[in-house]
């Protein structure tokens, strides 16, 4: 239980809770293990659970004309499914699938709702988190509408460096293994376009790639390339 409480302290949704409140809500979570390639839920399913990742990576995506469009990637310490906590009977707007073997804590809406009734500040934090997710979604829509493919790829790499980057003496290491196809699915293009841009970035000494991990050697140079 102490492991979960430590994790909850670093989750924006729960960071305002007192130690006593964390000890109260922690037992409401259920820990589950999932193998790589497990579908956690499909688009259109009824949403009744909130997910908090302890370890592993989960992709959230939609299928458009038989093509996978990755909307978000989540890893240890991230959470998703918060919309299901707000209103009963909402349908999932996308599909969630594990990209690695995962350990995930789940919380059902009914349990959360009873706790939230006694903790008004949690309602405000949930609203803030939801609005921030909406802002990021609007930004994605803008990028897909107004940015060219090259700029979308570069911006995605930059965003990943901000979210999952580990600072090193000579750059930033993106601690998430990604294939060219997965990057293509994130920006709404084909794999060949991603391969071309990544090659150019390596030739310009902006990034290096080793075993599907991206190391950003020049973060500011990468940022300036976004149009």
Q: Can you count the beta strands?
A: 12
Computed Rg: 19 Å
Main pleated-sheet profile = 4 strands, antiparallel
> Could you give the order of the helices and strands?
HHEEEEEEHEEHHHEEHHEEH
Tally of alpha and pi helices: 9
Main structural class? alpha+beta
The low-confidence runs, each spanning 5 or more residues with pLDDT under 50, are none
Q: Which percent range describes the beta-strand content?
A: 25-35%
Q: Alpha-carbon distance between the termini? A: 47 Å
Overall shape: it is: globular
Average pLDDT, all residues: 92
Side by side, the strands of the main sheet go 1-8-3-6
Helix content: 40-55%
Task: Describe, in short, the structure shown.
The protein is of the alpha+beta class and about 230 residues long. The protein has 9 helices and 12 strands.
Description:
By secondary structure, the protein is of the alpha+beta class. It has helices spanning 2-8, 19-25, 83-86, 109-117, 120-146, 149-164, 180-187, 191-203, 219-224, and strands at residues 30-34, 39-41, 49-55, 57-64, 67-75, 79-80, 95-98, 102-108, 165-168, 171-174, 207-210, 213-216. The protein starts with a helix and ends with a helix. The protein is globular, with a radius of gyration of 19 Å. The chain is built from 9 helices and 12 strands. The chain has a 4-stranded antiparallel sheet with strand order 1-8-3-6.
Short key terms for the protein model shown above:
four-stranded antiparallel beta sheet; globular; alpha+beta; about 230 residues
């Amino acid at each position: 239980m102490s492991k979960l409480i430590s994790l909850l302290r670093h989750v924006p949704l729960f960071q305002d809770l007192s130690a006593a409140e964390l000890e109260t809500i922690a037992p409401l979570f259920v820990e589950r293990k999932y193998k790589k390639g497990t579908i956690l839920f499909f688009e259109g399913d009824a949403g009744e659970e909130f997910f908090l990742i302890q370890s592993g990576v989960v992709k959230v995506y939609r299928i458009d004309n038989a093509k996978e469009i990755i909307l978000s990637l989540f890893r240890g310490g991230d959470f998703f499914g918060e919309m299901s906590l707000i209103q009963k009977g909402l349908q999932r707007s996308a599909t969630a699938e594990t990209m690695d073997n995962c350990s995930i804590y789940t919380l059902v809406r009914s349990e959360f709702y009873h706790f939230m009734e006694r903790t008004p500040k949690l309602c405000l934090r949930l609203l803030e988190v939801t609005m921030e997710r909406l802002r990021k979604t609007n930004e994605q829509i803008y990028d897909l509408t107004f940015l060219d493919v090259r700029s979308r790829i570069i911006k995605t790499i930059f965003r990943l460096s901000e979210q999952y980057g580990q600072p090193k003496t000579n750059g930033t290491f993106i601690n998430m293994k990604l294939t060219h196809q997965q990057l293509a699915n994130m920006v709404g293009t084909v794999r060949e376009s991603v391969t071309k841009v990544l090659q150019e970035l390596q030739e310009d000494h902006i990034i290096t790639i080793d075993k599907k991990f991206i190391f950003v050697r020049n973060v500011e140079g990468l940022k300036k390339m976004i149009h």
